[in-house]
Amino acid sequence: QVQLVESGGRLVQAGGSLRLSCAASERTFSTYAMGWFRQAPGKEREFVSGITWSGGRTYYLDSVKGRFTISRDNAKSTVYLQMNNLKPEDTAIYYCAAVRTASTEYHRTYDQRQKYDYWGQGTQVTVSS
User: Fold this and answer.
1) pLDDT in tens, 71-101
2) Residue 101 forms beta bridges with which residues?
3) pLDDT digits (tens, 9 = 90+) for 6-19
4) Cα(100)–Cα(31) distance, rounded to whole angstroms?
5) Which residues lie across from 19 on neighbouring strands?
6) Nearest in space to 47 (alpha carbons), one of 104, 114, 103
7) With contact defined as beta carbons under 8 Å apart, do 128 and 15 qualify?
8) Which of 74, 77, 84, 108 is paired with 21 by a 20 to 30 Å CA distance?
């Protein structure tokens, strides 16, 4: 059982930056692909960004490309989401998720939330205008 704990969410003004962290309890963290999803009030949970187990490939929602950067530190069992130039529409609860799968499979399924096996409790990001 993998436990994921997100942190770093807070209230920030539009144009500001935040870095979210997701710490995993699993020693074999390096074998999991990781994703960030978000859910705004009244909306479906949507994919934001994903990264393969090695960090060699990353994926982004179109609306965050060029503003958000996902990275991971396997030695610390942590995945990060650097968010720059934040906009009010980025306001949501942000969740990290983990899946153990081959990179070829992850390339096809990275944005499908049902494919992820483990989820954190989420961290609130609020962007004021």
Assistant:
1) 999 999 999 999 999 999 999 999 999 999 9
2) none
3) 999 999 999 999 99
4) 6
5) 82
6) 114
7) no
8) 108
Residue 63 DSSP code: G
Q: Which two tokens stand for residue 39?
A: 């859910």
In whole angstroms, how far apart are CA 68 and each of 47, 56, 94?
13, 16, 13
- Please give the DSSP secondary-structure letter assigned to residue 53: T
- Which H/E stretch holds residue 39? strand 33-39
| Pairing of the two strands 92-99 and 123-128 | antiparallel
Segments in the chain forming alpha helices (H): 103-109
pLDDT in the model for residue 80: 98
Q: What does R_g of the chain's alpha carbons equal in angstroms?
A: 14
pLDDT at 35 over 90: yes
Please return the burial class of 39, using the count of CB atoms within 10 Å of its CB with bins 0-12, 13-18 and 19+: middle
